[in-house]
Amino acid sequence: MTTPDPIPVFVDCDTGIDDALALAYLLAEPAVRVVGIGTVSGNVSATQAARNTLALLELAGRTDVRVAIGATNPLRGQFHGGAPHVHGVDGVGGIGLVPRASAVVATSAIDLLRDLAQEWGGRLRVLALGPLTNLAHFTTTHPASLPLIADVVVMGGAFDHPGNITAVAEANIHNDPDAAAAVFDADWHLTVVPLDVTMRHVLSEQDATAIAAIAGELPVRLAQMLGTYFDFYERVYGIRQCALHDPLAAIVAAGTVGVTTNGRPIEMSVITEGPDRGLTVARASRGKRHERRIVREVAEPASQTLIKQLRAHPWHAQSRA
Question: CA-CA distance, 225 to 221, in Å (whole number)?
């Protein structure tokens, strides 16, 4: 039986702790091939996110992956400074993760996405793990390239679940609701992985110990980050465990685990004004050409999938560039 070619994936992220876990999973998952990464301000600034990303790629021995810096500020207003209370001052738990040799490419994240869409000729999947500012710029700057994107998977939103920044707004959407509205309205296949499902997928301290025991520097460094994340989420869950927002979206993007989505055609939108700014809304479809899906259930716990793939990958055989 012929093994399908890996899915080429462009990751757009604001590399904090759960982004780091998601990137490690994607690098270990044979069903996907990470072909480029763009950074955006969210958990940290777009520039700091790029530093974190480059360092992680060095630890994984994957300095072949192009990394480009994207938008610093949202479509309206200024970057608010990130979430150091959640991810640490550097976005990765303050563990001193810095790139030794690698650097970002000269082009912007928006133009890198265009280049990759053209290179992969309709096969490229986009996984958005941060605010959607870069993707919104892409829709207006390179509209002719939209048909070259196979589909987009977004970690964001809260439909039947409270928000985690305001009563109604999830962080990635809240940080740039205008961009999210543009991305939700763009003419491409869209899958959204919201708080409704990500808050039910958690990583425990026991899981962190299991990650720390995996041979290789990258798993050890991932485990070191998690203390900061547990500190924050202990106030949310009442015990030392953390939500796996971005890793769950990465697992959905890899397509290796069964998911349950909305049972009928829908459209999605984002409220951009007033007290409900950042609220994500789903309604019955009015005939939009491309599919919209909200992930409601995932067949396997994200922690189980994550650790299984991290264990299967030969991190110990990798070296930093």
Answer: 6
